[in-house]
Every structure is written in structure tokens, then in C-alpha cells.
Specification:
Blueprint: H1 28-79, H2 90-102, H3 105-111, E1 119-120, E2 129-130, E3 139-141, E4 150-153, E5 166-167
Antiparallel strand pairs: 1-2, 3-4, 4-5
């Protein structure tokens, strides 16, 4: 009998053929699916962040309304009446409200609790206006015979007389 010597160095190993090519990269469909999933997740996060931000601003506005209502009450107790509604535009009415509430010491002390970021002079006439957390001036409405003045925020869309306006009433 003859023994056959085999040299391992010269043996060729062939891969088993299973009918499939070996995969070297991801397909375009797989990339598109991953991008679609990332887009959906990002839109969900952005939507939630916007909702949370608006809720936070709404709470801040409620606190500002409460402080302004307290300042208005102090003004009423001191002078026997609420400040008149002065001006045709919200900016004018907000400036007049700020001036009148700051003219009474007890109202001024309450006004000092409002965040400085919500009281600014953006009209360059040296009289600050009161703003909502969305950066829109607050409107002040009071007519003789009203029980209490109304404060109005334009809300998240920053446009007065729309469905998202927020009032103190």
C-alpha cells in the first residue's frame, strides 16, 4: 500500500457554495429604513420638546398674570379704581399699565417679582412694556363697569385675536 503525503501548504480550501454571495455592505433599502426610523424619532422628540416648552411658558404666564392681578388689586386699594385703559395699541396700553402700577409703592414691590426678561423697553421711548413668555407684549383691557381688568397674551402664535390667545379671566 502506498501512503499519500499531502502538503497542507498546497491544499486549496474552497468555500462551500450555498447559493448566496457573501455580503460586503448594507443595501440602499436598509439605509433608507434606518433614515426613516431616525426621522420619525427626531420628529417625536421635537414635538414633545415643543409641547413641554409651551406648557412651561403657559405656567410662567399664569404666574405673571397672578403677580399683575395682585399689583392691580394693590393699585385699586390705594387709589379706589383700576388704571384706565390708555392707547389704541397693546404696546401703548402695556406701557401705561407699567407706569401706573409702578407709581404706587405696594404695586411696584409686586411688579419687581416679575422676571426682568418679561419687562423691557423695545419701543425706545424709555417706558418699558410687559411681555409674555413668547415675547409678545401683554394687552390690558379695562372699561368702566368691569369688575376687574383683563390681561391678554397673544399666546404661542404671537398674534392677537386668534384661538390660542390666553386671558387672565
Amino acid at each position: 500500500m502506498q501512503t499519500m503525503k499531502t502538503d497542507i501548504r498546497h491544499t486549496i480550501y474552497e468555500p462551500q457554495v450555498t447559493g448566496h454571495r457573501p455580503r460586503a455592505a448594507v443595501t440602499l433599502v436598509e439605509i433608507l429604513i434606518v433614515l426613516a426610523i431616525i426621522t420619525i424619532l427626531a420628529s417625536m422628540v421635537i414635538g414633545m420638546a415643543t409641547h413641554i416648552d409651551n406648557q412651561s411658558r403657559g405656567r410662567s404666564l399664569e404666574n405673571t398674570f397672578a403677580l399683575l392681578e395682585s399689583a392691580l388689586q394693590e393699585y385699586h386699594e390705594y387709589g379706589g379704581a383700576f388704571p384706565d385703559e390708555v392707547g389704541a395699541e397693546p404696546v401703548e396700553r402695556s406701557e401705561a399699565l407699567y407706569e401706573r402700577l409702578n407709581s404706587i409703592l405696594s404695586s411696584r414691590k409686586i411688579m419687581e417679582q416679575i422676571s426682568n426678561s418679561l419687562i423691557e423697553d423695545r419701543t425706545e421711548n424709555d417706558v418699558p412694556e410687559i411681555y409674555d413668555p413668547w415675547g409678545t407684549v401683554l394687552d390690558y383691557l379695562y372699561a368702566e363697569g368691569d369688575n376687574f381688568p383683563e390681561l391678554i397674551s397673544a399666546g404661542p402664535d404671537r398674534i392677537f385675536d386668534t384661538a390660542d390667545d390666553i386671558t387672565s379671566r
